[in-house]
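Final report, Chapter 2: Outcomes

The project's central promise was a pipeline that accepts a single protein chain and returns its three-dimensional structure in a standardized token representation, suitable for archiving and comparison. That pipeline is now operational. To close this chapter, we reproduce one record exactly as it appears in the project archive, with the input sequence first and the structure output second.
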Amino acid sequence: MTSPWRIAALYRFATFDDPQAFQADLAKLCCGLKVRGTLLLAREGINGTIAGTPQAIVDQLQKDVAAVVAKPQVRKTME
């Protein structure tokens, strides 16, 4: 039997000068996609474990988190 849920553990080292500036956008995105879990935003990056449908996590959220990290005010510290 295949589960309709996908669980993803993630981290990305990046320098967020103001992690709270991204908090509302990520919360809105996750709620809209019905993704549940924990995302921790800190000055040194993003870390979390989330659960949702494969389409929400793989197709949408992964791209949107990558877009947040790609913003000019976020500097990658490691690849």
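Archive annotation: The first strand starts at residue 6 and ends at 16.
This record, like all others produced under the grant, will remain available to the consortium after the project formally closes.
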